[in-house]
């Protein structure tokens, strides 16, 4: 159910806020209540969609309790731990014209406010942790890995942005059809941005501040392996799309 904030009806934004949650029992409740308080004060209408996916701790129970306690919160349960499937399911469920995807360990309310304003001009907004190094408070090694990944994507896929794994806000009408085409899991944000870029959607970036609140879910070695495998898969998918488009152009 969508929650109408009658006291601030002068605000014009209607927003679906998606929070994927895998083993977030320590952070989820505080994160959702922080977003909920801000949304009540600043949005015309909203829904907070928790997408619990494959958790092995009490995250599923916490999600259900929050949905029962607050009428503006809904929860989806997925059996498999997959950030890509979680984001995609959340976007399929989203009912409002603007969509914001946050992380339980990365709740940036400044990004929320700026991104909604920016969506009046663009289709996608990226809160980039790469544009302002002083705002990136992660360990040095994590910064280096992010930089290497971004440079690889810029060179190999001709990505024009500074960060393919930042916070995101979307104009639902423009982006939901593209998300339906996405196939990756760990790099679904990268895939979505590349597909959107190739379709000519307008992507706006600005700096976002980040500080890790918990240890990464995957080891560096495992994450590098999964990302590398999906980048190879994505290169084949995009190549096939490009070839199909070329054949269609020749056929005309």
Folded structure, characterized:
This protein is of the alpha/beta class and 252 residues long. The longest helix has 32 residues. The radius of gyration is 18 Å and the shape is globular. The N terminus is likely disordered.
Features:
alpha/beta, 8 helices, globular
What is the topological layout?
Layout: E1 3-4, E2 14-21, H1 28-42, E3 45-53, H2 59-69, E4 73-78, H3 83-93, E5 98-101, H4 109-118, E6 124-128, H5 140-157, E7 167-171, H6 172-181, H7 188-198, E8 203-207, H8 220-251
Tell me roughly what share of residues is in helical segments: 40-55%
The helix/strand order is EEHEHEHEHEHEHHEH
Give the low-confidence spans. Answer: 1-10
The helix/strand class is alpha/beta
Distance between the termini: 47 Å
Counting DSSP E segments of at least 2 residues, the number of strands comes to 8
**What is the residue-mean pLDDT, rounded to a whole number?**
90
Q: Helix segment count?
A: 8
For the largest beta-sheet, the strand count, sense and barrel status come to: 8 strands, mixed
* Outline type: globular
Question: How large is the radius of gyration?
Answer: 18 Å
Q: What percent of residues are in strands? A: 15-25%
